[in-house]
Amino acid sequence: MANHVKIALILTTVMVVIGVILAGVYLMTYTPIVKADLNAKFEAIKFVLTNQTTGQLLVNQDEIPKTIDQLNAKIWKSNSSGVLYSNPKLPGYVLSPAYLFKGKDGSNIYVLTGYGIGFGGRVVTVASFIQQSDGKFFENAIDVIDFANETPGLGAKINDPDVRSRFFDIPNSGFKDGIRVNKDADLFPLPSNYKSEIPTYKKEGIVVTSDVMTGATITPRSVANTLNAMYEFLEKEVK
User: Fold this and answer.
1) Contact at 8 Å (CB) between 76 and 97?
2) Residue 112: closest CA among 84, 131, 88
């Protein structure tokens, strides 16, 4: 009996020591991780608030948040559940909070974060939508900030510049029936003149990705689903 008690005490002591060590490691790494995630969010917001053709900011420099307080001051919509809108049929989700910025030209620019389901799980995207004079929305740019579980060399290419740019500059006409990647729009194989037609395809809601993401469809589809959910959310919430 005494041996059993001794063994139990030793095991308990070992478990306590391990718990203390793990807690210490967590405390040491938590702050740097949170800081890195916040900086990544700042960079993503700045990126999507940039005209990708001219390289110029769509807002004044002092509108770009650099601290959590400045970021919180831009909150437009929030929800304690963490989700502002969902379309499970896509599936696509808009996360809380959503931000509102004022463009240099006086336009409202909405910056949203959302996710779709990729090959390995969530693919998280930040996107900006400029409200036009007619009340419709023009999707300016995206930045994919979490795609860690996508297949290297395939879905993990989703944030490569050549791939990401295919999701830039999509007008409201492209969202009329929802945007989709070219394989889902039966535009495959691509015609020989497809590159010159990419702007036209965007107006029709077709995002050409099969040439820059050969063999990968699920991941870019998840981004398209996310953007569709974002557009639906804006149409419902912006009066």
Assistant:
1) yes
2) 84
Q: How far is CA 171 from CA 95, 149, 174, 203, in A?
A: 22, 30, 6, 6
- CA 78, distance to chain mean position in Å, is 17
Q: Digits of tens for pLDDT over the chain (239 positions)?
A: 556 666 666 766 767 666 666 555 555 554 555 567 788 899 999 999 999 999 999 999 999 999 999 999 999 999 999 999 999 999 999 999 999 999 999 999 999 999 999 999 999 999 999 999 999 999 999 999 999 889 888 899 999 999 999 999 999 999 999 999 999 999 999 999 999 999 999 999 999 999 999 888 999 999 999 999 999 999 999 97
Closest by CA to 224, choosing from 179, 176, 188, is 179
Instruction: Identify the CA nearest to 232 among candidates 108, 97, 93, 76.
Output: 93
The label of the residue with tokens 């959590």 reads: 68
